[in-house]
Amino acid sequence: MGAFIKKPSAWVPVIMSFAALALVLGYVVVVGVQEPRADEGAAARIFQMLLAGQVPIVAFFAIRWLPKMPKQAAGVILVQIIAALVPFALVFFLEMRFLEKT
Question: What's the chain's average pLDDT?
């Protein structure tokens, strides 16, 4: 994986995932967990853009590097996928906690 450290397509999706996670945590700290509304608000839209924006970057990385270095590229893609699942899991967990209270 060390060969990919200089490749933005390897680390930008992970940074975007951490930004989405920070956004969710910051929102929960500042606003708290609220009842879902019809209009989700700016934070939800930014969260969605951060995670959806990763898809073309990860696809580019996969197309570019999987044929050349399959084992190393697969490891990077696995890290990218796990990093993207963490904010999703947090949002899912918070929504389930809210639904339990009602």
Answer: 90
pLDDT greater at residue 39 or residue 15: 15
Q: What tokens appear for 6 in the block?
A: 């200089």
- Rounded-to-integer distance, Cα 83 and Cα 12, Å: 11
Question: Using the 8-state DSSP alphabet, how is residue 38 labeled?
Answer: S
What's the number of CA atoms in the CB half-sphere (13 Å) around residue 6? Answer: 1
How far, CA to CA in Å, does 35 sit from each of 7, 66, 84? 41, 43, 24
* DSSP code, position 34: -
pTM: 0.87
Token pair, residue 2, equals 């060390």
- CA dihedral 51→21→14→47, nearest 10 degrees, is 20
